[in-house]
Design a protein that fits this description.
This is Aldo/keto reductase. Belongs to the aldo/keto reductase family. InterPro entries: AKR, AKR5G, Aldo/ket_reductase_CS, NAD(P)_OxRdtase_dom_sf, NADP_OxRdtase_dom. It comes from Chitinophaga flava. Keywords: NADP, Oxidoreductase. By secondary structure, the chain is of the alpha/beta class. The protein has one domain: NADP-dependent oxidoreductase domain (TIM Barrel). About 40% of the residues lie in helices and about 15% in strands. It has ten helices and ten strands. The strands form two sheets. It has an eight-stranded parallel β-sheet. It has a two-stranded antiparallel sheet with strand order 1-2. Helix 2 packs across helix 3 and helix 7 crosses helix 8. It is globular.
Amino acid sequence: MNITDLTGTAQLANGLQMPYFGLGVFQTKEGQEVIDSVTYALDAGYRHIDTAAVYQNEEGVGLAIDNHKTDRKDIFITTKVWNADQGYDSTLKAFDTSLRKLKTDYLDLYLIHWPVKGKYKETWRALEQLYADGRVKAIGVSNFLQHHLEDLFHAAKVLPMVNQMEFHPYLVQQALLDFCRQHHIQYEAWSPLMQGKVFNVPLLKTLAEKYGVTITQLVLRWDLQKDVVTIPKSVQQQRIIANAEVFNFNISPEDMAAIDGLDRKERIGPDPDNFDF
């Protein structure tokens, strides 16, 4: 990943350019809140918006994109099929519903949200069909550990191009990162700021002061220098703008290693091997 500015991209296995910095809208309310949030991001130069069916705000995301001056073709839209909709036919139906809500006739990236046992292979078969039909430019997964990926590989005709995972200084999962890189699967971070817990880590405070940046900016820059696509969420215009101001400094190899060393294998969200939704 060549980190340049907010327009920079990571190249996926099929050659598609995926913006390495975007806006996540998890827990952003449907209606004016999500419309404003996406609009602020697009105004600031973001070109990657990440949502999901279960977030229940796809319609607002679609409205904001539809009403913005930026051409649809220049915006990278990701959404995800929810667990209750997994399976071949139900995934195809869920995809159509998401397209309608997002006011678009194709997606840039469609993900399986969680590895639902006994279902994710059929769900993946549906994603492969959507990809073959040209209705989505790239397909991938979210919350898949190495054994989930290896199991999927046995049935897949097309390998996942992205794996969106919980990723932050307390949960690095370097072995999984390396495995994904080995198989040309782009790693992407959710909860990069540990739901605010990064602000309580003394080392991050010290390093942020050293580089003259905020803790948020430090951590998001660390993501990018780890070759991890990142999609921080915010509903505040100034914070959305500030989050993206991560292109005027470089974290040294020593400090990158120090942040890596904070790893506690500590999850903020559910365990992909143990979830009940």
